[in-house]
Amino acid sequence: MTIAKALSGRPIRRRRERGVLPLLLGPSIVLIAVFVIAPAGYGIYLGLTDTQLTGWAARDPQFVGLENFRNLLGSEDFLASLGRTGEFVLWSAIIGQTVLGMVAALLLRTKWLRGKGLFGALVLLPMVVPEVVASLTWASVLSSDGDGTLNRLLGLFGSGAAAPLQDHPMASVVIINVWRGIALAMIMFQAALEDVPDELIESARMDGASALQVFRYITLPLIRGPVFLYLLLTTITTVGVFGLVYFLTQGGPGQETELASIYIFHRAFQYSQIGLGSAASVILLVLLMILGLTYARLAKVEV
Amino acid sequence: MSRNRVLATATAGMLLTGALTACSGSGGDADGPVTIKLLEYQEPRAKVVKALIPEFERAMAKQGRKIKVELVADTLTDEQFHTKITQQLHSGTAPDVLDMGGSNVTGLAGAGYLLKLDDYLDKWDGWGQYYTSAKEAARQPDGGFYSIPHEASLQSLFYRKDVLQRLGVDTSQPRTWDELIGRLKKVKAKTGEAPIVIPAGTAWGGGTWTEGFLPLVAGTGSTFYDAKSKKWTLKSKGLSATFGLYDELIKAGLLPVRDLQNPNPWEPTKYKNFVKGTLPVSAQGSWGWKFDWGPEGAAPIENLREKVATWDYPALVPGTKPYSISGGGYGYSVNAHAKNPDAAVELAKWLSSGTPLAKQLVTVGAVSPRKGLSGTAPYKNEPSLLDAERKLPGSILPPRGDGEDQVSQAVQSATGKMLSGRADGGQAAAAFAKEAKELLGDNRAAE
């Protein structure tokens, strides 16, 4: 009786669901269409024109087809900025934040560590600080003048003034971005580690597995999904990092820290070439989509 | 049902109120005072103008015109200002009157953001007193005027007389760059530090173009911008010589390459080492006398007139002579969408005349762009500025034309490549020609 009722009720429920579905999805579809798809579509259109904000040519933008893309893909400066972005993502996000975030999460899971609250708070702090504040604070710490915090500290040991933002600009921004990003990695990995059953780890330990072996053969395979998800997220956000680096170096010295995002800002807004800047953004978007799909495939996660 | 009606009535009410508010905002009150927003982005300029505004309002009230001026003082660097004002003008949110350097005007006027002032200037007797060089510098590629210049400047090489004399280096006017480089090498041999700064690279932004590269290339005699065909010549003897000069200075260790790549390159060079005397020569506009090194400037030098003097630019290519160059200056432009353009232009004219003008010139260290001010206090008490004004009519006018922003960008990028050691003079000249051609398109680049 119950089964028959249920069977007979299904089509009605489906029909009802079909009716409710557009209502539930509608607002998000409209929001995505207005704030994501339409600007992206407009960006692609602008990338096909020579739109600029200043000069007589600004009055009459022309359709130039793929010329902006051809210019960009043949431009040493743009390709170099992509290379620098890759370097920045690799060292700061994929290696720095992921490894140190994992270490922090594992440390917080251990039983012997004292002062976990303080440790967790210290790691979280950089994420709480607004980007501009973080950036300007570091600019003050690393200032090449004698009154920078780092140089004052070095002075205590009798060392001469250092100028890390000029002598090692990429390494400096990588370290600062790692400092800022560990927190998110730690939170995500901590949550993932909660799902690893203690019994599995304990039995492996009883069978004589070392801590490293436990991590490599038990913990890591079990949290592969969240790790790849984090890698996907951090890659996307790190490619888009702008303020942190711009306030520290403005892409310099020379072009040593001109990441793709800064290259786009310079071209689109400082030099007012919206068409060229949009084309560069489209190229970056395509590269990110390829990277994202690769991660999703590797992790076999549904995003 | 009744709830729906209430909702519908409330929505209609809100829409009506909104529409009425919008209408009342755009209409304005013909009898009430007219409000003009004036933008200043440099602190000293904002300060002096702030004190002048009540005088202007009183002067207008005497004529029976109720004009109120609201000062928008937004302290920004040149680059930040350019980026911000472009966005504001594009989105229709810019103030009515803008005080900005002449190099900004071409691009903004071209895009149609600024009001053409020709009709106003034709009727203004003050316009007849302007030096031809100041007028020509303000004339835009379409032949019209989109700013009222209230400053002129003279670009030359400032040097520390006291330091060079102490080091036993000749301080007479160098005839050629070879002669000057010989002297600079002597300084370097004694101090071990780079002795000359000429703006270069991307960090100095537009200054690399207006204060660094342009004054050099303009003295070579090669055509850079042809006003008739409205095209830029991207390869010439003069351009090669200019890139070659940067190259020579970099290779001989005479240019502070590292400091020029600092995000604020003027700080370690002009504000620190020139003041200390370890970098005794600086390519600089006449505003250096007040704005940079004056008693209330960014980095004051005591007894400035005794310690610092200027040279004309030495000749770079054979057959040319030492020269000084008109460096342009700030001017007041009016937003093309200003609600009260007449009042806005009135403010611009008033600020560009008589005592108000003299006060501004002295504050920033600019030369008067118009005759007849040498007897007006406090300008009449500034011998360095009066000297520069005397030289103004004989100075070279730098080439200006549509596409200047793009040429400036290509210059910054090419000189930046030299600073980071990625290009020599020849490679930089080729990279400049390639990038500028791409940015300008075929219409604005000569073959």
From TrEMBL, chain B:
Return the InterPro entries for the record: Bact_solute-bd_prot1, SBP
Q: Does the keyword DNA-binding apply?
A: no
Q: Which residues cross the membrane?
A: none
Instruction: Name the UniProt key words of this record, in alphabetical order.
Output: Signal, Transport
Note down the stretches annotated as region Disordered.
Answer: 391-427
**Signal sequence annotation:** 1-22
Gene3D superfamilies with a match to the protein in the record: Periplasmic binding protein-like II
The biased composition feature labelled Polar residues covers 406-415
**Superkingdom in the source lineage:** Bacteria
- Family to which this protein belongs: Belongs to the bacterial solute-binding protein 1 family.
Protein name from the UniProt record: Sugar ABC transporter substrate-binding protein
* Species of provenance: Streptomyces brasiliensis
